[in-house]
Amino acid sequence: MILYKNQHVTDVIAKLNQQDNLFNIDNLSLRYEKGLIKLAGQWNSETKTLNIEDATLSGILYTLPEQWLSFFAKPIEQDVKSINIKQLSLNQSILIDINPSFLFNLPA
After folding, report:
1. pLDDT at residue 105, rounded to an integer
2. Which end of the chain is more exposed for a tag (fewer CB within 10 A), N or C?
3. In this structure, what DSSP letter does residue 80 have?
4. Angle CA(41)–CA(106)–CA(99) in degrees, nearest 5?
5. Is 53 exposed, middle or buried (0-12, 13-18, 19+ CB in 10 A)?
C-alpha cells in the first residue's frame, strides 16, 4: 500500500527498466478507489518529459477536488517540462465535479 496525504493505492505491480536517461515503464498497474489503473510509457530525465503510451482507468468512481480546474490551469513543476498521453481509455468509470459553477459527470 502506498499512502500520499489522504489518497492510497494498493496492489502495485510494475515492470520497469532504465536505459541511459530513459526510465521505461513497461507495465504499471495499481488499484485506486476500488478501480484499476494501468500505465505504460517512459520518463526522459534529460528532456524532463513523461510520455505515457497507454493509460487505462477501469472501475474508477472519483469526485474531483474542489480546485481541480485551477490546478490544471497552473504551469507544471520545473522538474517536469511536459506530459504527453498518446492513448487514454476509461472503462466503467465516473469522474464527478461538484463545483456548482461547472457541474459535470464524465461516465465512461
Report:
1. 62
2. N
3. -
4. 110
5. middle
Average pLDDT over residues 45-58: 95
Locate cell 524532463: which residue? 48
Which pTM does this prediction carry? 0.75
Sign of the alpha-carbon dihedral angle for 95, 98, 101, 104:
positive
Tally of CB atoms within 10 A around 60:
19
| Residue 55, CA distances (Å) to 10, 41, 63, 99 in order | 17, 9, 19, 26
Q: Which residues pair with 56 in a beta bridge?
A: 38, 89
3-state secondary structure of 39: strand
Q: Which candidate, 1, 4, 7, places its Cα nearest to that of 62?
A: 7
- Could you give the CA distance from residue 36 to residue 16 in angstroms, rounded to a whole number? 18
For 59-106, write each residue's pLDDT tens digit: 988 888 888 878 878 877 788 898 999 999 989 988 888 777 766 566
Three-state secondary-structure class, residue 64: coil
